[in-house]
Amino acid sequence: MQPRAPISATTLLVALLLFVAGAGLVALLAPVVSAWNTRTLRAERGWAQTPAQTVQTRAAQLERLSQYTWIDRKTGVVAVPIERAMQLYVQESNAESGR
Fold first, then answer.
1. How far apart are CA 60 and CA 35, in angstroms?
2. What is the Cα–Cα distance from 6 to 60, expressed in whole angstroms?
3. What is the pLDDT of residues 61-96, one digit of tens each?
4. What is the rounded distance in angstroms from the CA atom of residue 93 to the CA atom of residue 99?
């Protein structure tokens, strides 16, 4: 086995600079990614910037969940109120299990 050649100062400096550059890039991108994830979660959960906006958003969601609305008139797809949809699901499940 041959002895290893010593690592040069230039090699160490380049490795250190690459490490620092990578860490700096992560430090710069982390807040951006975090903010994007926060916005995405807020949108998915119906949260808004202020409590008043959140209340308005929740009210709109509840109204949408409690109404019949057309999804696609051509194919006859309708959004059913959530309570009615749950009743229909239970009825269909009971009918299938009774076969």
1. 25
2. 69
3. 888 888 999 999 999 999 999 889 999 999 999 888
4. 10
Instruction: Give 75's DSSP letter.
Output: T
Is residue 48 within 8 Å of 64, Cβ to Cβ? no
Q: Confirm whether pTM is higher than 0.70.
A: no
pLDDT band at 99 (very low <50, low <70, confident <90, very high): low
Q: How many CA atoms lie within 13 A of 18 on its CB side?
A: 6
Tokens 């229909």 -> residue: 88
Q: Compute the residue count for the chain.
A: 99
Alpha helices in 1-99 (DSSP H): 9-45, 51-65, 82-97
Contact 38, 30 (CB under 8 A): no
Contact between 48 and 56 (Cβ < 8 Å): yes
